[in-house]
Request: fold
Amino acid sequence: MGAMLDIIRTAYIKNKLPNGESFNGISDNAKVTSPDIKLYPNPAKDQVTIDVGQIIRETIRLQVYNSSGMILLTKDVNPQGSKIVLNTSSLLNGIYLVTVRSKSLITTMKLSVIR
Reply:
């Protein structure tokens, strides 16, 4: 558990995921971060809702990373509104990073799974 906290602490301080991607949503492609994006319930059990705060008419890629920076889940969605439901039933109890990315935005949020 201590090693996982060290990895998360380092990612937070350096604003970089363990795989080198930006943690704070700022990238070389000048994508916009959106403070309106919400992830709930957090902690989650079997599913989590991602509310992008507005209707997005482009494909959104969701990626879930574990504390080692490994991508555990990648999902491309075309939302029919502003909310996306992500199934978390395959994830073990723990802390994850969820990246929400499209042509116009990118953001990374912390997700806790507790059953």
Summary: Residues 25-30 have pLDDT under 50 and may be disordered. The chain has one domain: 2-113.
